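Q: Please design a sequence for this.
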């Protein structure tokens, strides 16, 4: 329950504030300069994101360089985003899964050596994936390390998987930008939605990915419509003890990638007038939200609207992103901005529960 019936002070948030290295650009190699930029912004805790163009965890020299720089510059590595796609981790055949399990364990080993205590892993719903997790959990036994499974649109299946594996070292990371309710909306944009979703996964939660959401996710805090007062209030209510880790993408305004543009042109050129008319009847905002009211699934108009919606969303994603400096500054400025907006008053929910 909330200490003293209040929300958060800026100092309390700062004491747990962290950022993902994706703010330093996943397409670029992580360097001492990137770490220095985060430090200059005032950040002290980092999640390192594995990816050969960014953090080449298979290159011992790069691992040594980054671990050394973090130590020297005063950045604590609190977590690691383990490889995004581990081929065959969910395969049916145990022999086919074995190299994938080994890959995750090798990645965990590097994270442990760098001081991280949590490793984020994207989940899948196959039987093979559960079996792989059980093998990983057995090997983690006794190590000060937890694998945290990250939700996509739905939170419940991740909880079921965590429950099925039944290991204290396989838990959950909640990504507030990915979740969608039954209507397709992000529950963390409203107070009741945020409280309900966080209470639902309270007992499995070891880590969070925070970012703002408006049409697309991974935006800097306060750039979208996330109900931050409710998210932080609920985290306090459920007794969450982990870092407040912001996963904000960086990038620069861009046009739709060439390949997608060509595909879309071809699609529009070959569609019949009737299809174009039908697909064109869907409001712009509905398309952006992945909805196609009035169109029948399986029809050419429905397919065209789906592709148009995807392209529009991609344009938004590419153009709403912050630069590295903006992303780091927005994360570092979150504690003060949170208190400026919401104060340290008792939130209604906290008073009721406390
Ligand atoms: Zn995430």
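A: Design:
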């Amino acid at each position: 329950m909330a200490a003293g019936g209040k929300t958060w002070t800026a100092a309390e948030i700062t004491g747990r504030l962290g950022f993902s290295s994706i703010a330093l650009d996943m397409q670029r190699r992580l360097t001492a300069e990137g770490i220095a930029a985060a430090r200059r912004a005032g950040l002290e805790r980092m999640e390192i994101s594995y990816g050969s163009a960014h953090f080449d965890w298979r290159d011992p020299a790069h691992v040594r360089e980054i671990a050394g720089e973090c130590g020297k510059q005063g950045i604590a590595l609190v977590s690691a985003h383990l490889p995004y796609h581990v081929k065959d981790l969910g395969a049916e055949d145990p022999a086919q899964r074995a190299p994938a399990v080994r890959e995750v364990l090798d990645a965990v080993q590097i994270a442990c050596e760098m001081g991280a205590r949590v490793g984020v892993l994207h989940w899948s719903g196959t039987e093979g994936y559960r079996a792989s997790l059980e093998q990983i959990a057995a090997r983690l036994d006794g190590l000060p390390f937890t694998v945290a499974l990250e939700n996509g649109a739905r939170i419940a299946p991740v909880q079921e998987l965590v429950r099925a594996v039944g290991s204290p070292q396989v838990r959950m990371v909640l990504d507030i930008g990915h979740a969608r309710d039954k209507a397709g909306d992000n529950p963390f944009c409203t107070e009741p939605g945020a409280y309900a979703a966080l209470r639902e996964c309270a007992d499995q939660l070891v880590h969070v990915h925070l970012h703002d959401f408006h049409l697309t996710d991974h935006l800097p805090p306060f750039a979208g419509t996330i109900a931050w007062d409710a998210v932080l209030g609920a985290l306090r209510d459920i007794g969450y003890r982990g870092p407040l880790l912001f996963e904000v993408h960086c990038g620069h305004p861009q046009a739709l990638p060439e390949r997608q543009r060509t595909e879309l042109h071809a699609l529009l050129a070959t569609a019949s007038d009737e299809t174009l008319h039908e697909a064109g009847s869907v409001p712009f905002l509905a398309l952006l939200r992945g909805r196609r009211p009035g169109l029948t699934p399986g029809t050419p108009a429905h397919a065209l609207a789906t592709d148009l919606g995807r392209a529009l969303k991609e344009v938004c994603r590419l153009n709403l992103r912050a630069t590295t400096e903006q992303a780091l500054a927005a994360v570092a400025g979150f504690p003060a901005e949170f208190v400026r907006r919401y104060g340290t008053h008792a939130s209604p929910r906290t008073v009721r529960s406390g």
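Q: Thanks. Anything notable?
A: Strands lie at 17-20, 45-49, 76-81, 118-122, 146-150, 170-175, 205-209, 212-214, 216-219, 244-246. The chain is about 45% helix and 15% strand.
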